[in-house]
Amino acid sequence: xxxxxxxxxxxxxxxxxxxxxxxxxxxxxxxxxxxxxxxxxxxxxxxxxxxxxxxxxxxxxxxxxxxxxxxxxxxxxxxxxxxxxxxxxxxxxxxxxxxxxxxxxxxxxxxxxxxxxxxxxxxxxxxxxxxxxxxxxxxxxxxxxxxxxxxxxxxxxxxxxxxxxxxxxxxxxxxxxxxxxxxxxxxxxxxxxxxxxxxxxxxxxxxxxxxxxxxxxxxxxxxxxxxxxxxxxxxxxxxxxxxxxxxxxxxxxxxxxxxxxxxxxxxxxxxxxxxxxxxx
Length: 280
Known about the structure:
By secondary structure, the chain is of the alpha+beta class. It has two domains: 4-119, Aminotransferase class 4, branched-chain amino acid transferase, N-terminal domain (D-amino Acid Aminotransferase, Chain A, domain 1, 2-Layer Sandwich), CATH 3.30.470; 132-277, Alpha-Beta Barrel (D-amino Acid Aminotransferase, Chain A, domain 2), CATH 3.20.10. Helices cover 26% and strands 32% of the residues. It contains six helices and 15 strands. It starts with a strand and ends with a helix. The relative contact order is 0.14.
């Protein structure tokens, strides 16, 4: 039985599919992507994803198709999930690339897209039973600029940080910016909790502008917590009560330890409940 992809609006079998050798995302990383969690055959937080798509396209000077609005992408994602039989929980990757020829200088700014899907074991968000162990990736630092907040097709720093974490026996690694402050983890934004205050690196620190990051900031503020977008040094995590990571697929994952420090997961547990009751 074939699984399906959506390639520029058309459902096609994934068997035998290949990207053309001249695709600019393959050649130059000239693209970006969204990773989207789905439930009951529909994408979650789609308006926030589309806002980030539009912002990324403006920054990278992509020309999105006129018809490619939030309703269009939502419909195409749902069609793909139905074709693949992923009616419960699923994860979707929507890749958008500059669909043009040329070398570094493209001959056009029109864009194409590819939508892929995989099933998830649980339809609802689940808090990880075992806390994660994490450390600092020191080999390469991430610059802070206009491109830093985009989920770019160029993910080398995240790959190398993930390999480093594996070599150290950690579950994840924290990536620092050029000034030595925490930017993010390998596929997540970082939050630290001290009593009733929550801290997370602001966008100027070089982190990806995560959709789940924005959702969590809103949920915590609504719940009455003091939330601060700021700079965080690695040593600041040794003086907090809790550290958790966020992305749209996992929702929230709590850290058990960083260096010699060990953490609780009170706010992480609360957020999982809030996410499951506020999915939109």
